[in-house]
Amino acid sequence: MMSQSLTMLPDLVLAAMLIGLAWAALSSDDLRRGVVLFIAFGLLLAIVWARLHAPDLALAEAAIGAGLSGALLLVALRDEAGGKETAGRVSQVSRWMVDLFALIMACLIGWVLWLTMYAEPAERLAQLANSMLEHSGVSNPVTAVLLNYRAYDTLLELVVVLTAVLGVLVVGRERRGYRQAGPVFCGLVHWLVPLLIVTAGYLLWVGAHAPGGAFQAGATLAAAGIVLRLAGNDAAGLLDGMLLRWSLVAGIGLFLLVGLGVTINGGLFLQYPEAWSGSLILVIESAATASIAAALVLAYRGGRPDGWLSVADYDNNREVSR
Amino acid sequence: MIDLLALILVFSGIAFFFFGAIGLLRLPDLHSRLHALTKADNLGLGLVIVGVALLHGSPLAALKLLLIWLLVLLGSAASAHLISQYALRRRRQ
Amino acid sequence: MTQVLLYALTGAVLFMLGVRAALLRDTVLPRLLALNVSGAGVFLIFVSLAYRGDSLPTDPVPHALVLTGLVVAVSATALALALNRRLREMDNE
User: Fold this and answer.
1) Which Pfam families does the annotation name (chain B) (predicted)?
2) pLDDT of A6 strictly over 60
3) Can you tell me the distance from the alpha carbon of A66 to that of A18, in angstroms, rounded to the nearest whole number?
4) What pTM does this model have?
């Protein structure tokens, strides 16, 4: 009993800190403070993932949940600075309604938890996933699920990311860049960016048999882009024009090509032949890494690059040429 | 014997973190807080890392840990510089 | 098993906190922050259910779902921020 409560101690501390940080981030009236607390919350969550034996998630959370979301929210604060907030008071009745709603949701979640943990001795997919691992072409089970068993999901998820970034591109122009950074920050960038690129390549490669993969690699590459933009490189290290468009769709394109190729050779869509699956997965993941990184960096830039025309510009040009 | 040494190193590192945190909470202005934080954390993390490397024992792991420490040093030095520069610039305005 | 329960309940509390704040705050950025926190709560519930003690291998399926979920969450946040910025620009025009 004593030893068990001792091993639980770090978990209790982590859980309490997570809830405390979330509470502080959400109840803070100062937005900047809230965002910084949210970044700390993300980093703590990465430790929790590691604790729950989910190293893939810990990597992704540190890069995406804490890093990129934090960077996006912080740069959005800069936009807010000009406008004024209209802080309307919420009535007492709606407060009660919201609390009641939250309580009902809590009961529902509790019921679901109870169902999954006790009522149904669940026939878990885990056993199936782990037993088929040797046929999947990779030995990291998470990568096997993402790019072999449930490749459809991942393909459509890349479509979601592309759709979101197309939305960002349609809605507005990119933010103004930053001025050239001072010598200290430039020195950091000289070390950090090559290191991030090498790390991304390593994560992509190692994803086949250890924690890592396209999402973590893409996020790390995107972080390199964001650091570059902060140092005064307005393009954030992205290519320009047609090449940028191609890199945005490379992941989906290659995914579809592989799927079609397999279908033509008599298989089902995205059901790779076993001998090829390892290399096909690596090829798809490499393209997906480039696409994810390009999409995330464009999202950070906040809109269309300066040279790109919007639909309205296009219409205007046509009017003029008539 | 090595284990004992490693534990002493790790715990003295934790003490540095602890005093750094106290400094962050108690010192009056931004620059002295930064001073407390960066000094304490850099040395604290260094001690923890040397301790952990001793506990682990393999040279490859020690190399990785050393790399982590160097990266944190680089990052914290640069970010402390940026934060204090920003604060200075704001004060002049 | 107790660890699973602890983290699942923590996830539920985070979800609740997020939903409550998302409904009660009246500006966009705090709401987005709140939605991200409640998303993290859902992820925590998933991953805690995938964990089955130190001896058994964890369930990779929820891990893969949460991994894609993280990327979708950040792209949705980016889109929401872009829409918010455009709305602000239109207000100023």
Assistant:
1) PhaG_MnhG_YufB (PF03334)
2) yes
3) 13
4) 0.89
Label residue A48 left, alpha or beta by phi (over 0 means left) and psi (-120 to 50 means alpha): alpha
Q: Which of residues 49-78 of B touch A (CB under 8 A)?
A: 71, 74-75, 77-78
ipTM comes to 0.94
Confidence band of A319 (pLDDT split at 50, 70, 90):
low
CA atoms within 13 A on the CB side of A317: 6
The boundaries of the domain holding residue A283 are 137-322
Q: Which residues pair with A173 in a beta bridge?
A: A304
- CA dist A132 and B11 (Å) reads 45
- Whether residues A98 and A204 share a domain: the answer is no
**What's the N-to-C CA distance of chain B in angstroms?**
57
User: Does residue A127 lie in a domain region?
Assistant: no
Neighbouring chains to C with at least 3 Cβ pairs closer than 8 Å: A
Does residue A244 lie within any of the structural domains?
A: yes
Chain A interface includes B82 (CB < 8 A): yes
Determine the Cα angle at C46 with ends A95 and C13, to 5°. Answer: 25
Whether residue A152 sits in one domain with residue A99: no
Spatial distance between the Cα atoms of A68 and B90, rounded to a whole number of angstroms: 26
**What band does A201 get if pLDDT is binned at 50, 70 and 90?**
very high
Contacts of A123 (CB under 8 A, 6+ apart): none
Question: CB distance from A281 to chain C under 8 Å?
Answer: no
The average pLDDT across A129-137 equals 78
Per-residue pLDDT tens for A18-58? 999 999 999 888 888 999 999 999 999 999 999 998 899 99
Residue A3 belongs to a domain: no
pLDDT greater than 50 at residue A1:
no
> What are the pLDDT digits (tens) for C15-73?
999 998 888 887 888 999 999 999 999 999 989 888 877 777 788 888 899 999 999 99
Tell whether the model's pLDDT for residue A193 goes beyond 50. yes
**A250 and A280 assigned to the same domain:** yes
How many domains is chain C partitioned into structurally? 1
Residue A281 lies in a domain: yes
**Amino acid A69: pLDDT:** 92
Residues A104 and A176 in one domain: no
Contact B78 A182 (CB under 8 A): no
Q: How many other β-carbons are positioned within 10 Å of the β-carbon of residue A29?
A: 9
**Separation between Cα atoms, residue A168 and residue A173, nearest integer Å:** 9
